[in-house]
Amino acid sequence: MLASCVTSKIGTYWEDPPIETPTFELPDADSGDDDSGDAGEVMMCAVTTCSLPWATCDASRFPCDVNLQNDNENCGTCGNRCKGPSAGNSTWTCFEGDCAFSCTGIGFRNCDGDTENGCETSVRYDPKNCGACGRECPAGQECTEGTCYDPCIVANRPDTCNGECTNLKTDSSNCGTCGNKCDPKDPTKPALPSDMHYGCSQGTCGNAQCNSSTKRDCNNDVSDGCEVTLHTNDHCNDCNDKCPAGKTCMYNGVYYCGCADGETNCGVEGCKQLDDDPLHCGGCNRVCPGNGRPHFTPSCSLGVCGGACAEHYADCDGIVSNGCEVNTRVDNTNCGACGNACAKDQVCSEGRCLVTPCDAGPGPIAK
């Protein structure tokens, strides 16, 4: 309960027995610099009571440091604990003062409506729930990344022979029609070098082809066989696919010339911006320290590691290992900034020590 102050011509006195509630003097707006008297002074008292949704609960370190709208340990009221992580990629969290069930794993959904088994369905890969609960792929199709697709078409095998996907235009075992097998040495054709054979092209047998998928006959002269090796800087993905200066032939599902300007090829990690990537800061795989420290995010700028506290948090004790340990929004010993202490039991809200006119009720004023 706030103290009640009374101001009269003989001075300011406590109407009730004095209590240790700090007071503050605010000059009257029209008084200017006039020191002629105290008639314009308004006595202010520290706010020691909470305004919703803030509350002081059993585990509170400071007055009114719990937000009942989003605190999983005190949801809606002190002591009302949400369940937290649950089975199968799910959790219970406090949302607007109520414990709410939600899915946590990427692409997982609670399709059976049973919270006890969590979010049991991956809508990324389940053909019966592809992209959303209940969205079933047509017969014979598969689901990947939430999209139904025909695996034969994706593999460039749009035809079917004996229940297997194939491409009648290129399959030397089913060339033009199922069961039509090409003779790799075709006696009606000239002999080929050892790295070539006759196969199927456009549904017709008798076409000279390379034995290896990484070789090409780029000069269209079968006498020297498959003279070009692919996946090099001179022939990255095909005969005429030469990488520009500074680029390298790389693989990421397909072969291509990388990296982009300003990027560096970090091997299996791919192309990286060494100027601003905290996992590759100034060099490949040079990780900036700080991951896992509370409320701290490591950063990289111009190849130099750094980091910053999350908004409203600060590193007040200077101890690196515990990160940014202070919430300056509610910590009344570090209110708004490290070392900015409010009076004992005074409420720190949004980084301000709150005061209110001593005889004006509970309405807080930031000071």
UniProtKB/TrEMBL annotation:
Biased composition (Acidic residues): 27-36
Superkingdom: Bacteria
Disordered: region residues: 14-36
Name recorded for this polypeptide: Tryptophan synthase alpha chain
The organism of origin for this protein: Labilithrix luteola
Lineage: Bacteria, Pseudomonadati, Myxococcota, Polyangia, Polyangiales
